[in-house]
Give the backbone structure.
Amino acid sequence: MEEIKNQAKKTEGCPYAKKCGGCVYQGKPYEEQLKLKQKTVSSLLGKYGKVSPILGAQCPDHYRNKVHGIFGRDKKGNVFTGIYEEKSHRIVPVENCGIEDSKATAILKTLAVLAKQFKFLIYDEDRDFGLLRHALIRVGRKSGEIMVVLVLTSPILPSKNSFTKELLRRHPEITTIVLNVNDRKTTMVLGTRNITLYGKGYIEDELCGLRFRISPNSFYQINSEQTEVLYQKAIEFAGLTGKERVIDAYCGIGTIGGCAAAKAKEVIGVELNKDAVKDAITNAKLNNIKNIRFWNDDAGKFMIRMAENKEKADLVFMDPPRSGSTPEFIESVNILKPKRVVYVSCDPTTLARDLELFTKKGWKVQKIQPVDMFPYTKSIESIALLQRVSNTRSRSITLDFDMEDYHRIKNGDDHKK
Ligand code: SAH
């Protein structure tokens, strides 16, 4: 604990805290942050089931394996990278962030220097004019592979070869450089088109002893160390015996299903993002997992089809984005009637909303396990284990609850984008 406390001190006094607004627990000792998170989860979810003590991080600093910088230019013409000021689109320069991977921070600094040296036009959002918008850096914390994604308004980067050469000379640790084209006036960072300038165009990393390929547009948990803690707990909650047919809903690049596959008979993954599904298929091959299949679909629609086709499932992992799941999805789970549901959530507010619905349909929450994936921020990851207690079973899909009430609980910020 002493070590944790000392590490947590490093992030104290962050000069960007007020404007950034990301780390609401700035300056608070890590133990206290954990207590506050525990209290939040208990007050939101305690009425559904017993909440176990939160699993804190061994190292709460510099954990973000994904780092995003927006390019800006100051009055003197110097280029910087930064973040949007809270609730605005003003860019606040950030030189050093206490929760970001330090190698990624150093690369961001170099990118700003090179952008000036190579005279790249910095994108101006108000005028919708310029070339260089964002940089996204992803670090494979175990593999050491690093991907730099430059987001431009055009597929053409002037002096591309000399720029790439100079960036690699300064940072030989970079394993791939990708140019992403985003020419739309949008709040989304990435466009859909990627052009590889150097390397493979993706990175690989390791989780729970397996290797995973991560493409620029695919989701990957941002705290790799705590992801292993999260997945191990989720798989423990599943209580698999080797005979089960498992669904991994909202599966991303197939990490949870991949890690659970050795303990199950069969795994079916479903995911909306095409790139993530491609990665998931590759990942199954990479790890020689033969009992897993992936579908590119909306999880709710897919599950409804499964229910209508009278398919079976023994265990459902569900890990939706911050906005939570949908009434359709929950209703289809109710029809498929697996023995257990392991719900992984990054927002206890939407989790509470969905647990309320499950409870109304005759499910009981057996355990809730918070895991601290996002030290210093207010975000909290939790796993809920659900079991069916009522024998009444829906035969058809009826959405017999107040939809307006359900949608009242809205999406929060961006940990799962
Ligand atoms: N389980 C994965 C991904 C969790 S993040 C992991 O641990 O890495 C949530 C995922 O849900 C994202 O990959 C996102 O693309 C996907 N998603 C969002 N809406 C969806 C929907 N309606 N149907 C299926 N997948 C969806």
Q: What stands out?
A: The mean pLDDT is 92.
